[in-house]
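Checklist before submission:
- one chain only
- standard amino acids only
- sequence pasted in full

Submission:
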Amino acid sequence: MNRDMIREQLRGRGPLIVRTSDGKQYRVAHPEFVLIGRYKVVIEQRKGLLDILDPLHIVSIRPPRRKGQKIPA
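Returned file contents:
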């Protein structure tokens, strides 16, 4: 994804799951906890730890699945 696509997905929503090309998932409580820089995306976790990602490796940004919610086919 490029920076503009990431910004669009983060606009006014939360919580979210950011998935990367290596299969890892990063929980985002609210878009305010994400910094989109020129070459990196930084996600602040609950205890103040930072995950620094390359935007080219972000493959999806989606709301988390709710309990009992079925996966669409």
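Reviewer check: The beta strands are 16-20, 25-28, 34-36, 41-44, 50-53, 58-62.
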